[in-house]
Specification:
Radius of gyration: 32 Å
Low-confidence stretches: 100-105
Distance between the termini: 106 Å
Strand content: under 5%
Largest sheet: none
Structural class: mainly alpha
Length: 123
């Protein structure tokens, strides 16, 4: 009985070792390497996409915070005229903020004034 038990343990161990060796050998074949490179590429693409999305969200949040804090409003009411942004970004910003529909298609020049009651130069 003891011998049969150890023969079974040895056979099971040999099967496990053979499968692990086969798996390891497959990882280093051209197909296995290509598969690992593809997976790494997908992970990198996903990570870069997530980082870019977080950056864009943080940039938009900071831009809105600065616009609110500095109270810079261009003459025609288009806050993107201050930065000279394109139509695509302006549309994305308008979709996010419901109150900025005025002057959407026109090119506006900023006044550069924070408050009309304050003098422009203080000598």
């Amino acid at each position: 009985m003891r011998r049969l038990f150890w023969v079974a343990v040895g056979a099971a161990g040999a099967v496990v070792v053979a499968r692990r060796l086969e798996e390891t050998a497959r990882r280093y074949t051209p197909a296995g390497v290509a598969e690992r490179v593809e997976v790494a590429g997908e992970r990198t693409t996903q990570a870069m996409g997530n980082a870019l999305e977080r950056f864009r969200a943080a940039r938009a949040e900071r831009e809105q915070e600065l616009l609110t804090t500095l109270l810079v409003t261009p003459e025609d009411g288009d806050p993107h005229a201050v930065f000279g942004r394109g139509r695509r970004e302006r549309d994305a910003w308008e979709a996010a903020t419901p109150s900025s529909a005025a002057g959407a298609g026109r090119s506006a020049r900023p006044t550069g004034r924070v408050d009309d009651d304050e003098p422009l130069y203080d000598f």
